[in-house]
């Protein structure tokens, strides 16, 4: 876990404690998040998860904005309870009033889409193929059947794969 990220989480908590004049329990911090999300706050577990790839590629903005964004979710939950909207007034108050940052709901980091393997299935229709995900291909291997909507034939694995 990068020390800078941990230090930023702690700084955000200290800022909130000075502003609200109360102590907040520190969350568990995980660096095990993949995909398009930069960070996630698990309110009931008092857990913050961050995306290491997006952190590496956007370090400065990530530390300033994303970490505060996720900490603000936990602070808002502790102060105002379960019935608030995720990016509602209470969360916005913390982002603007405590951290003096824009209350942006989403990041705009570049996300490189990785290539995925598709399993090519065919029916009796000429020149027609159906690219299946690895998950769907596994279901077929376990016995699930899929049908072509045009010819109603069972889709059969062609033995071919392609990267998309």
TrEMBL record:
TM ranges: none
Keyword Aminoacyl-tRNA synthetase included in the entry's annotation: no
Keywords: Hydrolase, Metalloprotease, Protease
SMART domains cross-referenced by the UniProt entry: SprT
Boundaries of every SprT-like domain copy: 7-158
InterPro entries: SprT-like_domain
Pfam families: SprT-like
GO molecular function: metallopeptidase activity
Protein's recorded name: SprT family zinc-dependent metalloprotease
Organism: Stutzerimonas nitrititolerans
């Amino acid at each position: 876990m990068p020390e800078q990220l941990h230090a930023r989480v702690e700084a955000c908590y200290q800022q909130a404690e000075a502003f609200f004049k109360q102590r907040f329990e520190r969350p568990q911090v995980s660096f095990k998040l993949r995909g398009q999300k930069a960070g996630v706050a698990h309110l009931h577990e008092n857990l913050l998860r961050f995306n290491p790839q997006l952190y590496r590629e956007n370090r400065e903005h990530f530390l300033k904005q994303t970490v505060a964004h996720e900490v603000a979710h936990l602070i808002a939950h502790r102060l105002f309870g379960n019935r608030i909207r995720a990016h509602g007034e209470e969360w916005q108050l913390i982002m603007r009033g405590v951290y003096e940052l824009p209350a942006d709901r989403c990041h705009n980091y570049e996300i490189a889409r990785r290539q995925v393997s598709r399993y090519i299935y065919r029916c009796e229709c000429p020149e027609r193929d159906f690219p299946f995900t690895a998950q769907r291909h596994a279901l077929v291997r376990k016995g699930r059947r899929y049908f072509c909507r045009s010819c109603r034939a069972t889709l059969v694995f062609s033995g071919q794969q392609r990267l998309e």
